[in-house]
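Entry 14. Structure prediction run on the chain below.
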Amino acid sequence: MQPSQGQDRCAFEMKARSLVAAIPAAFLLAAVLAACAFTRAGYESAPFKTVLKEGGFELREYPDLPLVSTEMNGDDASFMRLFGYISGGNLEKQKVAMTTPVIMKQGRMAFVLPSKAAVRAPAPASDKVKLERLQAATVAVLRFSGRRSVKSEQEALGRLRAKLKDRGIQEAGAPFMAYYDPPWVPGFLRRNEVLVPVVKSTGGLSATRAAGDAKAPADES
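Output returned:
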């Protein structure tokens, strides 16, 4: 039985409507991707040198990183204490540029101080905010996406440790997390990393160096 002219027209209209509905969604996704890239590019990022890169797994060399940190007792409260510091809530009432990533290590949240403030950072006005340094180290890194949660962090750490075991690379310190994106970025587009300091002399570090080291202030998207 052949479809009628009316059925053909109805099918055509349904396909046209689906196509029209898909166009705004495609534009929206493109806009979000562009906004993410623009946002990351707008911040100075912690410098590092890439030693090895295989998919989402990396080995990096970090220099000493100057940090401003606070105890984690709720993400929002911790973040706002640090944001208050860089917004002028310090003894010199000096504004300090925001950077990426936000680091979370051993119960503390930290911002990396920008290069301009690293030499002489203003003293915190609150005793809940501290200036410290993350010592230079070679670290193994695994990138993952999604909203921050204990489950996602532990899963990413488990995957990274499995890769280290496969390569015979020894851990040399406590793992920590790095988050690069503001809250409005959708979970599937977020750049998160788990990092583990490793022993530099292990055989896994003798691999060919990958091209394209990270730059400060530029950041990988």
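The longest helix spans residues 5-41.
Filed with the rest of this week's runs.
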